[in-house]
Amino acid sequence: MAGAGTPGHGPLAGVRVVELAGIGPGPFAAMLLADLGADVVRVDRPGGPGLGVDPAHDITNRNKRSVIIDLKAENGPSKVLDLAERADILIEGYRPGVAERLGVGPDACRARNPRLVYGRMTGWGQEGPLAHRAGHDIAYIALTGTLGMIGSPDEPPAVPANLLGDYAGGSLYLVVGVLAALHHARATGAGQIVDAAIVDGTAHLSAMIHGMMAAGGWQDRRGANLLDGGCPYYGTYETADGRHMAVGPLEQRFYDEFVDLLGIPELGPARKDLARWEELRETVAARFRTRTRDEWTAVFEGSDACVAPVLSLREAPEHPHLAARGTFVDHGGITQPAPAPRFSATPTSVRGGPALPGADTADVARDWDVPRLAKDGD
Fold first, then answer.
1. 210 assigned to active site
2. Catalytic residue selected from 70, 136, 319, 331
3. Which of 22, 67, 104, 231 could form a disulfide with 93 if both were Cys (CB 3.0 to 4.6 A apart)?
4. Residue 195 is among the residues annotated as catalytic for this protein
5. CA distances to 44, 159, 233, 275, 314 from 272, in Å
6. What are the Cα distances from residue 55, in Å, to 30, 250, 354?
7. How far is Cα of residue 102 from the mean position of the Cα atoms in its chain?
8. How far apart are the first and last CA of the chain?
9. How far is CA 91 from the centre of its chain?
10. Which of these, 43, 32, 54, 50, lies nearest to 77 by C-alpha position?
11. 243 pairs with which residues across the strands?
């Protein structure tokens, strides 16, 4: 059943969240809160969010409930304010100023509920020269220096899907922010506004790299460093069947096991000799091309050589380790990642499939005590 009620599951049981529907990092952040047990009510707009994804397959709306409110209608903003009055957290992902123009900005919401944590998810942030400009993940991470780190030195930077900006630099920082602000609100009775910008979060992710660069241990160019593919024993290699193996034996004892199992023990000393790195890289590449990915997987099985097969999205759920842990689950005919992380006392689960727009209006109106939510003309 779409939009199953959420109370009683996970460490955030009892926390109420209003999500003003959008695309990208906002819905993912709200999904994570829902996975952790929060009662997330997604306020969908008439006609959908704009990307045309079949709502029945939009996993980022799992474990939520949905109501439809037209914020441009005369009574639309007041219905959202009714929900905000009863919520702990509200999440929106509009451009700066849009929520205010719609009548559901932080001042209006917190006038009704001073304890409310108002989470704002944007690419550029609420302030700055680019704050009102359109953009997507790839542009945000480009300005932070992180996109330029990824890929081969003789090719354009590699695009890491929208995982680095939208979800790592955006959603996860929004969730950390609103939960920290919720802790403060419960201690003091005062809510606050959380400005989560993808540029800020993505830049923050590169903290260690900036430290290494300041210490002279990182070159500001692609493919020239320990962790960016510049090192011959930290990267990926093609196998005989056109697939790939991931290699990462950084420590000496793991590296020794790696070269032994690969059949090139004579190149053990090349680990610390930068002048021999190209020889090492070419030899490792040639060795991996002599067998298939699955054959090499068998060679390194059970070892500490830090080598793993590069799996596709469809292959990953079938890997024995991930299957044993239940890292992926099947729900409603859709294979999907299970909620993470895991909790010993308040376990989480996929409790409901993607919330279909408006399917839960009556239940939310009852559970949140907002009776006019279910009345079209009120």
1. no
2. 136
3. 22
4. no
5. 57, 31, 11, 9, 38
6. 15, 44, 7
7. 28
8. 28
9. 16
10. 43
11. none
Q: Is 243 helix (H, G, I), strand (E, B) or coil?
A: coil
Encoded amino acid at 324, one letter: A
SS3 93: coil
Instruction: Give dist(CA 93, CA 78) in Å, integer.
Output: 19
Q: Tell me which DSSP letter residue 38 carries.
A: -
Token pair listed for 76 = 């639309």
Q: In this structure, what is the dihedral angle of CA atoms 227, 229, 234, 238, given to the nearest 10 degrees?
A: 150
Establish whether the linkage from the previous residue to 341 is cis, with ω within 30° of 0. Answer: yes
For helices 25-35 and 172-188, give the axis angle rounded to 10 degrees.
60
Instruction: Please tell me whether the overall predicted TM-score, pTM, comes out greater than 0.85 for this model.
Output: yes
CB environment 323-344: b (16+ within 10 A), e (fewer): eeeeebeebeeeebebbeeeee
Structure tokens at 306: 């830090």
Beta bridge partner(s), residue 235: 247
Mean pLDDT by 10 residues, the chain (378 residues): 52 97 94 97 84 84 96 95 98 96 97 98 97 95 97 95 97 98 98 98 98 96 94 97 98 97 95 94 98 98 98 97 97 96 95 94 95 76
Of 35, 44, 88, 166, which residue is the catalytic one?
Answer: 166
Rounded to 10 degrees, the C-alpha dihedral 176/178/180/186 comes to -150
